[in-house]
Design a protein that fits this description.
Layout lengths: L1 H20 L2 H7 L6 E4 L3 H16 L13 H9 L4 H16 L10 H13 L13 H17 L1 H34 L8 E6 L7 E4 L3 E5 L7 H13 L3 H15 L7 H17 L6 H4 L7 H15 L5 H12 L14
Helix pairs in contact: 3-5, 3-6, 3-7, 5-7, 8-9, 8-11, 9-11, 10-14, 11-13, 13-14
Length: 347
């Protein structure tokens, strides 16, 4: 036992000497934190599905089709159509029309059929063909399989390159800023980040917002959306990951609201994520303007932001406990109590 202890003690100064002599980057690498995200850029089938989804909404003139995250999809398609022969163009248009008449009218965040399809398509990665699955309806499968060779030749090289550039940029930002952002986010919610990180699928197009998440976990981010670049993309990656904790946070809010005899504002969990991810990124990245401020998310929701400033920020600053912050927050963010029922007096 003494010999083992002696050898262990000998290792300590040796390690200290090694660290002292190692150059700065090497020392940092020894203690490098595990990556908080596992990026995928080559999910061919998922990229095709999301492109057809966005184009379907554009062809059906959905109100959100002009949003900046998807506005370039139409011109992108037009450029590709110029490289197709008549038969290919007709096949491509049939696939887009199929989406426009069905899948593109659904919400990918909440619709169970789209969630299941996206999860299966993400798992298919860049396979040459789709493996038969019961979770993709026959019509959608036909549209995808008929459009796949056209997409692979015409659009995929450009989309894949955009995805890879996006990942490289995100990795540079994470190397510089992930530690303080991750620290504040996990402490504020009282959770541990997944050991292997959250999976993030990078697609050229996702939806009107440029990013979304749903159960699975399924997190998608657009590589071409203007608001998904630089530190805004960094904030969004943490934002979408935090949605995986919505149910747990809602239970905490509801418990505190029951004590206060108030209702939980239906948008409060989302507001907390905007506020927390934005503030964590602002504190870490010089000059960062949080997404909610930059895009006007708080317009019309000023009372929620004021409640977060008054109740949640003190917890982020370490001035109160999380329990105090939650109780104060639900009280400040609650809407006005319903009027008491009027009691008719007997004459």
């Amino acid at each position: 036992m003494r010999d083992v202890a002696h050898r262990s003690l000998l290792r300590v100064p040796a390690l200290a000497l090694l660290l002292a002599l190692a150059p700065g980057p090497a020392r940092a690498q020894m203690f490098q934190q595990a990556a908080p995200f596992r990026f995928t850029t080559n999910a061919f089938w998922l990229n095709l599905h999301q492109f057809l989804y966005v184009l379907g909404r554009a062809h059906s003139k959905a109100p959100d089709a002009t949003r900046s995250a998807v506005a370039t999809a139409g011109p992108d398609e037009e450029r590709g159509l110029k490289d197709m022969n008549a038969e290919e163009a007709a096949t491509w248009r049939r696939a887009v029309d199929w989406y426009a008449s069905g899948a593109s009218s659904l919400d990918p965040v909440f619709d169970e059929t789209l969630i299941a399809a996206a999860l299966d398509l993400a798992a298919a990665s860049d396979a040459p063909t789709l493996i038969p699955t019961t979770r993709i309806d026959p019509g959608t499968r036909t549209a995808l399989e008929s459009a796949a060779p056209i997409y692979r030749r015409t659009f995929w090289p450009v989309h894949l390159a955009a995805n890879q550039r996006f990942q490289a940029g995100m990795e540079r930002l994470l190397q510089a800023y992930q530690r303080p952002i991750l620290g504040l986010v996990t402490r504020s919610y009282g959770v541990s980040w997944p050991r292997n990180g959250f999976p993030v699928h990078i697609c050229a197009y996702t939806n009107w917002a440029g990013a979304f998440s749903t159960r699975g976990p399924l997190i998608l981010m657009s590589s071409v959306a203007p608001d998904m670049q630089g530190s805004l993309a960094l904030e969004t990656a943490f934002h979408e990951s935090m949605h995986q904790w919505d149910d747990a946070m809602l239970r905490r809010l509801q418990s505190a609201a029951a004590v206060k005899r108030v209702a939980v504002d239906e948008w409060l969990t989302h507001a907390m994520i905007f506020y927390t991810a934005g503030e964590a990124t602002r504190r870490a990245v010089p000059g960062h303007v949080p997404y909610a401020e930059k895009t006007g998310i708080w317009n019309g929701r000023e009372s929620l932001r004021a409640a977060l400033d008054a109740a949640w920020r003190p917890w982020l600053d370490g001035k109160v406990t999380s329990e105090q912050a939650i109780v104060d927050l639900v009280a400040r963010a609650a809407g006005p109590p319903p009027p008491a029922p009027r009691v008719r007096k007997r004459r």
